């Protein structure tokens, strides 16, 4: 079956613009995660959705970052007023209730 | 989340066994030990998970001593395609993961 998909695969934007990144999880997976990975570094947790529970937003680096999820399907990560330090690969992962995480290919964001 | 420590990099040759040890001194009773593999320009991929003793699958083996304060991922007979970053994570399955810098394994011909 289909894995986790993310779009766009690459996004180049100008400093100060807003961007929206999309994640389509594996059907039936109740949990969804967003991570950020800067060049040459490990993954940085951003936000976690689990079913209808309130999301864990503790990893969002500033109020310019927000994310939404519609039920147990698509999620969007929005970055407002982008800054150059936001340049990174943004990874989405989905998971059944208590199991391994399945990652998408990521969106490479470049802020000029 | 339990903090993990693993080597920054390891070099090997094709056909050799690669063993990566991860330290996690403050692992909690409910924590599992999970290893992920990440190739360049891809998201991480689950390799193996264990709680105690030894776990083996078609890709790797995971050795966990009785005190669970460390674990060793063993990759048998590596090939060039095993060149990747390997992450050791400790925590509950149903919650956010803490990825460190991982171990960059380079396999040479």
Describe, in plain words, how this protein is organized in 3D.
The complex is a heterodimer of chains A (112) and B (109). In chain A, a hairpin with a 6-residue loop joins strand 8 and strand 9. Chain A has 112 residues and is mainly β. The model of chain A has no long low-confidence stretch (mean pLDDT 92). Chain A has strands at residues 5-7, 10-13, 19-24, 31-37, 43-50, 65-69, 75-79, 88-95, 102-103, 107-111. Chain A is 0% helix and 47% strand. Chain A is globular and about 40 Å long. The N and C termini of chain A lie far apart (37 Å). Chain A has no helices and 10 strands. In chain A, the strands form 2 sheets. In chain A, strands 2, 4, 5, 8, 9 and 10 form a 6-stranded mixed sheet that branches. With 109 residues, chain B is mainly beta. Chain B is built from no helices and 9 strands. Chain B has strands spanning 9-13, 18-23, 32-38, 45-50, 53-56, 61-64, 70-75, 84-91, 103-108. In chain B, a hairpin with a 5-residue loop joins strand 6 and strand 7. Chains A and B meet through strand 4, strand 5, strand 8 and strand 9 of A and strand 4 of B.
Number of strands of chain B: 9
Read across the widest sheet of chain B, the strand sequence of neighbours is 1-9-8-3-4
Question: Which pair has the most extensive contact?
Answer: A-B, 26 and 20 residues
Stretches of chain B where pLDDT is under 50 for at least 5 consecutive residues are none
> Mean of residue pLDDT of chain A?
92
What is the H/E string of chain B?
Answer: EEEEEEEEE
Distance between the termini of chain B: 38 Å
- How far apart, in Å, are the first and last alpha carbons of chain A? 37 Å
Number of DSSP helical runs of chain B: 0
Residues in β-strands, percent of chain B: over 45%
Helix content estimate of chain A? under 10%
Q: From the alpha-carbon coordinates, what is the Rg of chain B to the nearest angstrom?
A: 13 Å
Largest sheet of chain B: 5 strands, mixed
Q: In angstroms, what is the radius of gyration of chain A? A: 13 Å
Which band does the percent of strand residues of chain A land in? over 45%
The number of distinct helices of chain A, counting runs of at least 4 residues, comes to 0
Q: Could you say which overall geometry of chain A the principal axes of the C-alpha atoms support?
A: globular
